[in-house]
Design goal:
The structure is a single chain. By secondary structure, the chain is of the alpha+beta class. The chain has two domains: 30 residues, no CATH class; 113 residues, Yope Regulator, Chain: A (2-Layer Sandwich), CATH 3.30.1460.30. The chain is built from three helices and nine strands, in the order βββαββββαββα. The strands form two sheets. The chain has a six-stranded antiparallel β-sheet with strand order 4-5-6-7-9-8. The protein has a three-stranded antiparallel β-sheet with strand order 1-2-3, with no helix packed on it. A hairpin with a 2-residue loop joins β6 and β7.
């Protein structure tokens, strides 16, 4: 069993596991408990040139849709786009990982979603191109259901 205790005065997080205590510095880490409103607003501003974009609660984060088809999600302060076999490798080549979570049986990789490489936030045209690709993939996948 693991317990977390945040100490904002010292800017550390204490992790208690059975009888072991780890002190982990929080300096420079993104918000670990959920997406910040500022990050969500920033992402939506970057995607604004694409018409019919909307965001809403999605599990512990935000889902981003175009014309009611979800093509992206924000978990913590990370943006993930829907990918398929035709686009996944370019994400991997840029060091982006798929979304994952853990459950009792271990780590679960959700290969449908890959994190958007940080470099794209400095290249708005490329970010929009990748978002549009993700929208096409998400629409195709929703039709296959």
């Amino acid at each position: 069993m693991v317990f977390f205790c945040l100490n904002s005065e010292e800017n550390i997080m204490k992790v208690y596991r059975f009888s072991t205590t780890l002190n982990i510095s929080l300096e420079g880490l993104d918000n670990m408990t959920g997406s910040t409103e500022e990050y969500i607003e920033h992402v939506l501003e970057l995607l604004e040139p694409i018409n019919a974009i909307s965001a809403g609660k999605f599990f512990g984060g935000q889902g981003i849709s175009c014309n009611s088809v979800q093509f992206a999600m924000i978990m913590g302060n990370s943006l993930f786009f829907v990918v398929d076999d035709s686009t996944r490798n370019k994400y991997i080549e840029m060091g982006a990982e798929c979304f994952w979570y853990t459950k009792k049986t271990g780590k679960v990789n959700v290969k449908k979603y890959h994190e958007v490489p940080g470099e794209l936030f400095d290249e708005p045209d490329t970010l929009l191109k990748w978002a549009r690709e993700s929208i096409k993939i998400a629409k195709k996948l929703s039709k296959n259901k």
